[in-house]
Queue: 3 jobs
Job 1
Amino acid sequence: MNRTSGRSSRARRTFTVTALALASLTVAAPAPANAASAAPAFQLPFPCGEKWQLNTWGHAPALDMVKEPNQVGTDGAKLIAPAAGTVVQSTFHSNAGNMIQINHGGGWFTTYIHLKTRSVSVNQRVTQGQQIGQVGATGPTSNGRPHLHYEQAFDANGDGRATWGVADSERVRPTFNGVEYGQSNSREWNDVASANGCSVTPVEGRLYREPNGTVAVVAGGAPVRFTSMDELNASGYEGAPLTNVPAGWLNTLPQTPRDGTYLRNASGGGISIITGGAKYDLSLAEWTALGQPASVNVPVRLINTYGTTPRNGTYLRNHADGSIFVIAGAAKYGLTPAQYDTLGTPAFTNVPIGFINKIGAEPTNGTYLRNPVNGSVYLTAGGAKYGLSLPEWTALGEPDSTNVPIEWINTFTAIPRNGTYLRNHADGTVYAITNNHKKPLSYDEWVTLGKPDSTNVPIGYLNTIPNA
């Protein structure tokens, strides 16, 4: 719709001359209907935050653009690349005036005419947001009215170029920030804001919306996407303001909340601390003792995706006394200051002692521990350790290991406890450990015992354990 008839009529007169004068330019086959699915992430060709009026007049899908409000500042306005590409035309055309065309790859082109100045040359590589010229009124078809005539095109016939200027060329509907324009003639879009070059800093707890309608809240620096408006409202965000961001912006953020993030179940009010890929549900007293840290409302389904034991190599600090624990194999080990220094003073998360107390003291079978001082790796099973040679570690598939103090490794015995099952990774034979001895099991014996889990170990380890 027109906001002021005077402004629209001036732009309309501009189009009338343009359409007639450009009719002599090359005509080519129309672009395929599915071309837009492969388009680059085009942004409006103007600096971040500027607002422009877009018109198709009678030459859809091409657009004429004038600056808001009321065209003030159109003449000489800074023109920037809507996406990265290579300049293939930069010239003065007898009808169009100063014009530029950019090849963005994948068959995609953009064309700009009536420019006041051109600041790029043919074969020059440009980045998104780089200035390529200024908006102007050059060429007789501009009718002396400053505006940008803009076209997006797709190389439908595969000849490596894109025609422009008239109907039935390779022009397609322009898309900016994921929103399509140019659907039909006599259309006008007012106050279209540019997101080109915008640097959006994610703010904890703020809602962001991409052009396709995806809404996410930032928690721990990561986007938590909502599956529906009902879920958004149920999480306590009904009526909350949304910050619009460019298409794909959410994917540029870390996708996992950082350690030490506090998530609040909006439906129940409970607050969980996240660290090492695990959650711990805080009591009111624990949350208070931690200083009542801020939390972000999220759907309970997200909180439920976390387990209860931090991943290997996580460091937890008892906020009450400052002691630090390293986690490996779902077990914890309390570090001395010297040990913590030897491990490189890694980052830790302050947690209640209740969280630490829920974690066991013995690693699960098949955990690999590494002495950072000399690099030796130990395999643990049934409360025992075995130092692997390099060939043995390689034969086992070079499994990941966790750096821990040698003092923790030295607390383990040499022979696993009764009821541990070891499997020779070379031939698959399973051995049962009883009274510091091993006994090979037949398949039937293993089945009778309920097919117990076993830990893959080198034959060298088995050879250190006496036969039953």
Note: DSSP finds ten helices and 33 strands in the chain.
Job 2
Amino acid sequence: MRLMNSENVANIMMRALDYVDPRLIDHGVRTGYCVLRMMEADGGYDKGTVRDMCIMSILHDIGAYKTEEISNMVQFETGDVWEHSVYGYLFIKNLSPMPEYAPVILLHHLEYPRLKGVDCSDETKKKAQILSLADRADVYRQMGQQQPVEEYLKRYVGTKFSKEVYDLFLKQQKQERNENGGKDRQERECYLDRVLGAIREQPFSDEQIEGFLKMLIFSIDFRSEHTVIHTITTTAISVEAARRLNAGERLTEKIRHGALLHDLGKIGIPVEILEFPGKLSPQAMNYMRTHVDLTEKILDGQVDDEVTQIALRHHEKLDGSGYPKGWKEADLSLAQRIVAVSDIVSALTGTRSYKEAYDKERTLSILQRMKCEGLICPYTVDVLTESFDVIMEEVKRQCRPILDIYTGMKTEYNDIIEVCRNL
């Protein structure tokens, strides 16, 4: 089952990260446009490489979501560029379907003379330089300076940028002005259309699309590790329950994708609410509940509608007491009911900042009570009760690699940051 296409991937990515801070996504799109035009001016890159660099341009500052650097990103001379560069490197390396581009992200702020001495391919260095110059050109333009950007950047040739890459920038600037009657064209729609067009021209494989989908889910860990583990757990339980209920291969795949996407909107919920160590106030709970609305806005028109509805209805109850729509039993498909019950099991058996994991007996007791009250699907409760130990063992198996990755990233960060600061 093909969940989405390459353009859908880019749209969902930008919508999701936009809820964290729109400044970085707007900056990423503008940077991507400049990178695209520079690579076109070079003439030596195939469509796949151009597409990949457009994606990396959108994501190049993703490490800033983990740091407090967002408000400082407009400064050309940043005091410490390495924190977000290393976080971004680790994210792309470990959690994206494009790990080969991780060094480009890591090195995109390194000055040219130092970059020459780094042990990596010349092609990686050139891509890092293209991204670096495009990045800084956009920052300068957004500062509203009067001096032409070409003149401003020229002073850094040989110190921050290579002459080769600066000449590419001049070439693309000349081409663009010829196209636009001698004027710079800086409308967001122009940038976005061209960047999405380059992404659309070279489609991603199904495997890559799946990788980007997981990458977005993992990106929430930059704000709440518990949320990511909960998502992986909910997905594993949903799939195991669907198989035992003979949902069929195609529907089970839709259930898997819906479960994977069900909490994507939490990327837009403040971390102090996500990780609050106790019962949320009514106001905070109302805010938390908006994650379903955010998920809908992110997925709208980009993903199979059945998958979207599975993701959006995981907090509905059979008696109409759930949210956000108050759907009742007749409105909820088997797939939606399976994910709703699996979400509850995942929440009960998982740790949170405010609770320890519930054991088997307590979890099953709560499920049985909710079943008897007519709140959740009795068939799903029955199969989970019958196969609880086997299912939860499979959950542990699927979560272990993710936990290992996060543990390894923390260790690797400490090792890399020291090396980078000494470059």
Note: The longest helix spans residues 388-421.
Job 3
Amino acid sequence: MADTGKDMLLYWGSGSSPCWRVMIVLEEKGLSDCEKKLISFSDKGHKSDEILKLNPRGQVPTFKCGDIIINESFAACLYLEDTYKSQGPPLIPSEPARKANVLQRMFEVPSFTKKAMEDLLYLYMFKKPEELDQEKMTKSKAALKEELAMWEGYLVKAGGTFLDGGEFTMADAIFFPSLAFLVRCGLKLAPTFPKLAAYYDAVSKRPSVEKSWPPHFKDTEGKPHLADVL
């Protein structure tokens, strides 16, 4: 009998890419019955005593699997794949070259998110328009465009729908939520990056992604901060 997620608890926030990664992997591994508690960032739910007891950093995802607590999204995803390897499709290939490729792409995602989030979107989110350094913003947009071109190249090289070619892997579970957040923020992938545009459309339709799609993404529109990047 397959294991279930009944002894698991995930605290998550809608729209959080790290939370979404874990939720995709839970769906892929057949652990969708994991108990999930949605927190409100605006109400500082991630700083509640309930979460701080499990995660002293006061962040989400905060994830409990039995007596094991894992609060970093990469760590939680890798733990789930290793522990429930026989359930669902393998998200990390066993063949050495493919495994290396998937791990490489996974651990490149923080470089992608830094250029997209820390160097650009966070400035829009946490500064007033008159406080923005327009020269810096222009440079950050150019750097993001270069980063997107790199990922476009990875898809061309892979020669398939996903980052490792024809199979959905952990690299996609880690990368896609960050890309989807940029699209929500106005990024237009086509026609500049046709492979990324096709990738976004394909992964959006994957059941694990559809089932874990952030609720407020469905009901509201994001700010068009990145509409002029490409």
Note: DSSP finds nine helices and four strands in the chain.
